[in-house]
Amino acid sequence: MNKISFSNPRINTKNTLSIIKKALKKSFPNEGDQTIEFEKKLKKLLKVKYVVATNSGTVALFLALKANDIKKGDEVLVPNITFPATANAVLMAGGKPVLVDVDPMNLLINEKSLLKNINRKTKFVIPVHISGRGSNIKKILKICKNKNLKIIEDAAEALFSKFENKYLGSFSNTGCFSFAPNKIITTGQGGAVVTNKKKIYLNLLKLKDQGRTASRVIGQEDDYNKEGYNFKFTNLQSSLGISQLTDINWRKKKLIKIHKFYIKNINQNSNFRLIKFRLAEGELPLWTDVFCSKRKKLFIFLKKRGITCRVFWKPLNKCSLFKKSFANFPNSKKLQQKLMWLPSSLTLSLKKQKRICNLINSFLEKNYN
Ligand SMILES: Cc1ncc(COP(=O)(O)O)c(C=O)c1O
Fold first, then answer.
1. Mind listing the pLDDT tens digit for each residue in 161-195?
2. 216 CA distance to ligand 1 centroid (A)?
3. Going along 7-103, which residue ranges are E strands?
4. What global pTM score does this model have?
């Protein structure tokens, strides 16, 4: 059977190897010239002043919170439906994640629920741009400005996605990206923090490298005047990133094409709908996500036919680490066990996508008519 998976990376091996060779020639596989080149390219593409590459999206979120001076016990509002990394990064930084309900139509953090959860301990909000959507960012910015809260954008799934002509991740003080294998570009593992503030940038540099105030003067001792870690991003990872940025426009177009094909070729009904993107505003659908009242049945139906979708994360309030009743999460309750992502690989062929659509349509006909 011709198998189809949820997401496969697209790696041009020849191109990647030629870039990696440059790093190996210098016998320098650690963070170095290629990392600087990768950061520069991202900076230009995203139209931001500073980019700091790091070893995962989770670490990017952690560093972003630390660089913005999170204090022990600070409350950080995070959406109840997100990858646990968002909340784990808060815990890692000593903060307290406070869960906020999401919007049922676009899965983004719900503004009313956000307002309800703000108190004097609240210091940060982390909006998550799920699957590349971020259309509520302006409203969040307004709320946070009024309430004097800092925003860290979790744009792990939204690299090169825009809203009203501006890149998601660049709306606030600090934005975070992931280069895990199912993203638009992958470096195996990896992430980046972007900011337009020099102070935050300098904090990030120290935090990711043992608090070092690099003198770079040969023979002179480095100073270490701040708490820091080792979250560097190697030349080898950067080579993978640089190589995938060379065809970034193709990648963006392909993701839009996949999503539009699903819209055109699946017969949606009130029990099965694609979660909408604002394509005209520049949102880039990294993955096509759907609401299906019979998710489990559909997942198994497709799986038996060689097609692997990806079921959504459990709402965080249902995970034992954060356990809470659904009382304050009515929308999450409606969505739980009903969301999944359709195959959205950069390598997905038209023929395979036609097969997926035909199978989904036959499932919908049998199960909802
Ligand atoms: C919404 C969201 N936040 C954070 C992350 C963490 O990124 P990483 O897996 O690179 O640590 C992911 C992961 O893909 C994610 O989807």
1. 999 999 999 999 999 999 999 999 999 999 999 99
2. 33
3. 50-54, 75-79, 96-100
4. 0.97
